[in-house]
Amino acid sequence: MVEFRLGSTRQPLRRILCLGSHCDDIEIGCGGTILRWLDEFPNLQFYWVVFSSTPKRRQEAFLSAQAFLRKARTKKVVMRNYRDSFLPSFSGQIKEDFEKLKKFKPDLVLTHYRHDLHQDHRLICELTWNTFRDHLILEYEIPKYDGDLGQPNLFVPLGQESYKRKVRYIMDAFETQRAKRWFEKEIFLALMRLRGMECIAPSGYAEAFYCRKLVV
Ligand SMILES: [Zn+2]
Question: CB atoms < 10 A from the CB of 24, how many?
Answer without folding.
Answer: 21
